[in-house]
Write a structure and sequence with these properties.
Strand content: 25-35%
Number of strands: 7
Radius of gyration: 16 Å
CATH topology: Aminopeptidase
Largest sheet: 7 strands, mixed
CATH architecture: 3-Layer(aba) Sandwich
Length: about 160
């Protein structure tokens, strides 16, 4: 079932909803891989989200997805500059500005409803005008990146 999803920038007051989604995602990942994930502290988490939001601006993008006015998910992405030693790297993506998704979280009750897709489409729109390469949301689980070709759009181009 697709939800009516609104994607927008973080704003004051989103911290509590972000904290709920964050904890829900943490429980999901801890259940599946307790060696690499843990439950973050709940006390102060909403305030942490509010403080993190306050200092944002380029090259950081923080978005929330809402359904019926409730925070259903969030994404945090940054622009990464070309590596200073790119000429020595095997991957051509090291020489261009890249989008890196630091976190993508969808609360359990909204998974498989289009929330994550809407968030990622918004990140792609943000990155398309600036970045030439799209990095995986986590270096732990993904080894491929998607590079933007001026002719054909996004395509897989190498390993991260």
């Amino acid at each position: 079932m697709a939800a009516e999803v609104e994607v927008r920038a973080f704003r004051a007051g989103d911290g509590e909803g972000c904290a709920r989604a964050w904890l829900d995602a943490a429980r999901y990942y801890v259940d599946r891989d307790p060696e690499n994930f843990h439950l973050p502290a709940e006390a102060g988490l909403a305030e942490w989200f509010e403080q993190a939001r306050a200092g944002d601006g380029p090259p950081v993008l923080r978005l929330v997805a809402t359904v019926a006015g409730q925070v259903a998910g969030l994404v945090v992405a940054t622009l990464e500059a070309p590596l200073p030693d790119a000429r020595f790297q095997l991957v051509s993506a090291a020489a261009v500005v890249r989008v890196y998704v630091n976190a993508l979280v969808v609360a359990g009750r909204y998974r498989r409803t289009g929330v994550g897709t809407a968030l990622m489409k918004a990140v792609e729109r943000w990155g398309e005008s600036t970045a030439r390469c799209w990095l995986p949301w986590t270096r732990t689980f993904a080894v491929r990146c998607r590079c933007r070709s001026m002719r054909t759009g996004w395509a897989t181009c190498g390993t991260a």
